[in-house]
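dude i think i finally got it to work??
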Amino acid sequence: MILTATQQSCLETFSRFIDSTDHVFILKGAAGTGKTTLVKEFVQLLNERKRRFSLMAPTGRAALILDNKTQYDSRTIHRSIYQMDRSPIKIDEQWIFTIKENDDDTNHIYFIDEASMVADV
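look at this
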């Protein structure tokens, strides 16, 4: 794939990020600027470096689009973080799902596509 100069610069910045001690990398841009194309390049780079990653999106539709465009398994954020193999607990008429234990080491990178759809509360 031939990247634009801006995309190539972003890929190089991401490469430095994964070798750094920084915890967050934010990729933003207008619709159609190639963000998902870059995510595909990012995960290919991570595969080459034997790094683990997870692709997530806030909705099933967004996860399916990410899955199709990157050719890697994508899930909703909820499916990724909540323990669905245990029964939920009902407290005061609300169902509570437990959060999965995060046993991943620092070698794991999490991608959240369409993060602007996630509440900031």
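The two ends are 38 Å apart (CA to CA).
im so relieved honestly
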